[in-house]
Amino acid sequence: MTSVATATTTEELGPSVRADWKLTPGSGLRMMSAEVRKGLLAQLSHPLGHIITLVVSTVLYLGMQYVMGQGSLRRDLLPETLVGISGYWFLQYASLVMVADLVEEKRGGTYAQSHMSPAPPSLIMLGRLVTASLIGMTVAVVATLVPMLVADVTIPLRAGALVPYALVVVNVLAFTFVLAAVALRSPMVGALHSLFTSLVILLNGSMMPLSLYPDWLAVVARLLPTTLAVEATSKMLFRDESLGDIWSDGTLAWLLAYTVALIVFGGWLFTRNQRRAVRDGRLGQY
């Protein structure tokens, strides 16, 4: 009787939770797709909050540019700052979605329940990261295009600049993973998120180009996510430098080293905190 009930239950739940389930490219992709779909449905079910935040933040950016231009928009500086602000929006929203969802699920106990799946936790987190990147990229594109239309400015396009700007995206996702790793251990990660994103919008070139900063402040700014990548992208877009130029002056080399270090640190910290949470029985609580 028990064996019949067990067989029926297993069959009802479907092949994704069968005892003989194995991680393959196909099954892994299905698990990630389900996680992405769940995350997108959760975010899109309350669009008003995103819209209000986007409107207020865009007005704030334009207001700051009026202040920096002493009552007028500096159209000579706006295109370069728009590259920086796009990186900031991506970081702000991608990390916010990732961290807020994780904290909420830990408090509600659903994060612990997700570990009943045969899929490795890292695969589930990658699905969450895809959701965060889709939301963050959408917001970043809209929040960059609106000021461009309002101020009637354009950003020159160069194919080579896609290389350093791709590293903006990787920078953001690696740092988002670092914050997610911290969120596994502490619900106070929100304060850390606010601190770092505030520093990024002030120092990564969103308010003024990095070349206008004092030397000591530029050094500090380059330690933050997106700053080096925004600087490399700006050099190619606005100073007609090539990939070879930004490699020879060390910008691209430092950017690659910084990005790799951030990826390695995020992976190590997540693995460490995940193992501690499992060992201490704190997957569903802080």
From TrEMBL:
<keyword id="KW-1133">Transmembrane helix</keyword>
<keyword id="KW-0812">Transmembrane</keyword>
<feature type="transmembrane region" description="Helical">
    <location>
        <begin position="191"/>
        <end position="213"/>
    </location>
</feature>
<protein>
    <submittedName>
        <fullName>ABC transporter permease</fullName>
    </submittedName>
</protein>
<feature type="transmembrane region" description="Helical">
    <location>
        <begin position="82"/>
        <end position="103"/>
    </location>
</feature>
<feature type="domain" description="ABC transmembrane type-2">
    <location>
        <begin position="38"/>
        <end position="273"/>
    </location>
</feature>
<feature type="transmembrane region" description="Helical">
    <location>
        <begin position="40"/>
        <end position="62"/>
    </location>
</feature>
<dbReference type="InterPro" id="IPR051784">
    <property type="entry name" value="Nod_factor_ABC_transporter"/>
</dbReference>
<dbReference type="InterPro" id="IPR047817">
    <property type="entry name" value="ABC2_TM_bact-type"/>
</dbReference>
<dbReference type="Pfam" id="PF12698">
    <property type="entry name" value="ABC2_membrane_3"/>
</dbReference>
<feature type="transmembrane region" description="Helical">
    <location>
        <begin position="252"/>
        <end position="270"/>
    </location>
</feature>
<keyword id="KW-0472">Membrane</keyword>
<feature type="transmembrane region" description="Helical">
    <location>
        <begin position="123"/>
        <end position="150"/>
    </location>
</feature>
<dbReference type="InterPro" id="IPR013525">
    <property type="entry name" value="ABC2_TM"/>
</dbReference>
<feature type="transmembrane region" description="Helical">
    <location>
        <begin position="162"/>
        <end position="184"/>
    </location>
</feature>
